[in-house]
Amino acid sequence: MALLLWALTLLGLVGVGAGLRPRKLESFRSETELNHLVVDEASGVVYLGAVNALYQLSADLQLEQQAATGPAPDNKKCTPPIEASQCHEATLTNNVNQLLLLDPPQKRLVECGSLFKGICALRSLRNISTRLFYEDGSGEKSFVASNDESVATVGLVSSTGPGGERVLFVGKGNGPHDNGIIVSTRLLDRAEGREAFEAYTDHATYKAGYLSTNTQQFVAAFEDGPYVFFVFNQQDKHPARNRTLLARMCRQDPYYYSYLEMDLQCQDPSDAQAPAFGVCLAASVATTGAGRVLYAVFSRDGRSSGGPGSGLCLFPLEEVHAKMELCVPCGWGPRPHKSFPCGSEHLPYPLGSRDGLTATAVLQRGGLNLTAVTVTVENGHTIAFLGTSDGRILKVYLAPDGTSSEYGSIPVEINKRIKQDLVLSGDLASLYAMTQDKASLAPPRTAPQGRAPVTLSHDANETLPLHLYVKSYGKNIDSKLQGGAGAGWGAPAWDAGSH
């Protein structure tokens, strides 16, 4: 580990020694606030959702297409379609992009806004100006996203099973004029008399029964095998506290009998007595050598005894499943009481377990928030990219022994918060990030000034993303680790002026 950390510190020396100037990031500036970013791995096309607009960009962030989504006459109390004669309170209202998701098999884009009670549309991936489906007259059954601009909506596009229908799994909090549904499964195609974006079945929604005492703010959605997961914060009022919850349900469960919630906690490694980091700000899933892992960044405000700060915690999904299976197996339904070790004979109803998982942060920072996270694994090495509240992307090596080392950072836009959508390109060569109104492309993975990169791999043709390059006798880090301290680790054997 010490040898690897020493090698990583050479990154700065390589850039300085070669006389490199900081490379200006490729970027795209929006006229309005940016809300979401997604990348089509196959084509490299980048899609941005913004207030009143959608953008389709090339891989190097050149504008290809754009489409207006607002403003339009609306009022949160009125049911669409909005007609002046029926909604006298309607005023010109901005449309915040609440959800932006790809459906590559069907070559379409799902977009939902805050206008008109959170209804959605399907658009062509080839040209976002082409709207494939849009209906504003279906009433409450088509209200998908939150119509409160400050309440997040998350989702994912998948199928109900092998050969099953393409559906949209949605999680959202509730504003004062929302419909109370916090989790739902939505059709993406007409089926059995139902239009796109209507509930998959009459039972495929979960309406929180405790809205008067708790509020939710969703953070992420992901799938793992037959399951769909949602990460969200819940603000309890009695007693007043925030809980981070992980909800799981089976993709093939049309009745939500399998819906289960469990607490997640992230502890400060520097002070066992300090309160846990309280609010999850972002989460991402990656596959490591040890299996699939949920990476989540948590924050703690200055009112806590531990002071302001944030931390990165890891939750192996194998442990998540094991904990949840102690409570209920997948696909349970109305059965005798003995089949419900965590509930009662009155089930099915959504179950919650306060006996959740607690992890200790592998990285923690004081005085700022970690606001975004994405993780990649190449050649057995795990690298996390963490967005910060002051406009940087931290590059962190996560060792198998649970330790971490920050080996560099990318300044994106100083003192501008990095937004949650931090996305690697399909070839893992570049990283896309967003601030308030700017999308940026971090440098591609090329060796400085034509140098042959030395990589965390036995194959000299394989490289890690985003400048994880080290110069040391033309040998790679893995071989040095295997050779140990006697393998010749010393000062870099190169001269800045001769390479």
Automatic annotation (TrEMBL):
Gene Ontology biological-process annotations: negative regulation of cell adhesion; positive regulation of axonogenesis; regulation of cell migration; regulation of cell shape
Keywords: Glycoprotein, Signal
KW Hydrolase (keyword) present: no
GO cellular component, one term: semaphorin receptor complex
Coiled coil: none
Origin superkingdom: Eukaryota
Any one GO molecular function term: semaphorin receptor activity
InterPro entries: Plexin, Semap_dom, Semap_dom_sf, WD40/YVTN_repeat-like_dom_sf
SUPFAM superfamilies, A to Z: Sema domain
Signal peptide: 1-19
Claim: Signal is one of the keywords in the record: yes
Pfam families linked: Sema
Residue ranges of domain Sema in the record: 8-444
PANTHER family in alphabetical order: PLEXIN, PLEXIN-B2
Name the UniProt record assigns to this protein: Sema domain-containing protein
Species assigned in the record: Prolemur simus
Upper classification of the organism: Eukaryota, Metazoa, Chordata, Craniata, Vertebrata
